[in-house]
Design a protein that fits this description.
By secondary structure, the protein is an alpha/beta fold. It is built from 13 helices and 12 strands.
Length: 329
């Protein structure tokens, strides 16, 4: 090999070396704070974390070598998020990853300087997390979508098609989640043209669940929509209560259907967690979150649990089944 070819080849190797390897050689370990409303033991959330870590590895960020991840879990208690976010801020993370809207809000309230990457955020503009999707303008960016999107219209349409005689839908929300009043507005707008009456019920703690389902029974609800009031093991309990009361249930997260709920329609969260690693990578390479446009999910998935349908004595029409991205037997 002549000298010119050798120099050219080595120059190409240097240019191709990722920033992460440079950080490793310099001895600097980047710090990522990971804030979750779920529990560490939740199998659904652990699968999302695994997708995030795998994408980091593909980008050259290796735990224990050039990056360290500090985890905080709220175990489904949204009231704990401000304290946990403040802990991460005090530890001076280089970036904080925040899954779900209340988590991103808690992180934003805890720090105005540490970059924050939100995952599956809802309506970040109306909540003041970003100035706009195209130009966030502050310390928050990531993957989010507007609750004004047609997602609730789609959810209720699918539910009504699956339960043809449906007239009344109970809606569970948690007042500690700052985005749920906005979601309720969208649900009401979507329900009117479908001729569906709504019964709104608030639950703050798992101890509220039994009373909420008793109220659904008194008002003769024909199904219930969960706006995301439980994480982790409580997913299973809610699914069991729905079957006990013979209520078809619909969600925005496939994890609830895997736990025994009837059906879900929402963004592909694995894809969002993988995409979050891209934002973290950019920020650790000195990109400013203010200048990284917020991305909106491009893939939505319909998941149906036929085992639950059987337990409810419900036959899902073929017109719904053919649209499912996954059917759980």
């Amino acid at each position: 090999m002549n000298r010119r070819k050798f120099i050219t080849m080595m120059g190409g190797v240097i240019l191709a070396t990722p920033h992460a390897s440079q950080a490793q050689r310099s001895g600097k370990v980047q710090r990522i704070g990971y804030l979750s409303a779920a529990s560490e033991a939740d199998t659904v959330s652990s699968r999302y974390r695994a997708a995030f870590r795998q994408s980091l590895r593909e980008l050259g960020w290796l735990e224990g070598q050039n990056v360290a991840i500090e985890y905080r879990f709220a175990d489904g208690r949204l009231d704990r998020l401000p304290q946990l976010a403040a802990e991460l801020a005090r530890l001076r993370q280089d970036v904080i990853v925040a899954h779900l809207t209340p988590t991103a809000v808690a992180a934003k309230n805890a720090t105005a300087t540490i970059p924050i990457v939100m995952i599956n955020g809802n309506d970040p503009v109306r909540l003041g997390l970003v100035a706009s999707l195209a130009r966030p303008g502050g310390n928050v960016t990531g993957v989010a979508y507007s609750v004004g999107m047609d997602i609730f219209g789609k959810i209720l349409e699918l539910l009504k098609e699956a339960v043809p005689n449906l007239r009344r839908v109970a809606v569970l929300s948690n007042p500690r989640n700052p985005v749920q009043p906005l979601q309720l507005e969208s649900v009401k707008s979507a329900a009117r043209p479908l001729g569906l009456a709504l019964q709104h019920l608030e639950v703050r703690e798992p101890g509220d669940f039994d009373g909420a389902f008793a109220a659904m029974a008194r008002e003769r609800a024909g199904a219930y929509l969960n706006l995301g009031v439980a994480l982790g093991i409580e997913r299973v309990r809610l699914a069991e209560l729905a079957v006990k009361h013979q209520l078809p249930s619909v969600y925005g997260n496939r994890g609830d259907v895997e736990a025994g709920g009837l059906m879900s329609y929402g963004p592909d969260l694995i894809a969002q967690f993988r995409r979050a690693a891209y934002f973290v990578d950019k920020i650790l390479k000195d990109a400013k979150p203010a200048e990284l446009p917020v991305e909106q999910p491009t893939k939505f998935e319909l998941v149906i649990n036929l085992k639950t349908a059987k337990a409810l004595g419900l036959t899902i029409p073929q017109s719904v089944l053919v649209r499912a991205d996954e059917i759980i037997q």
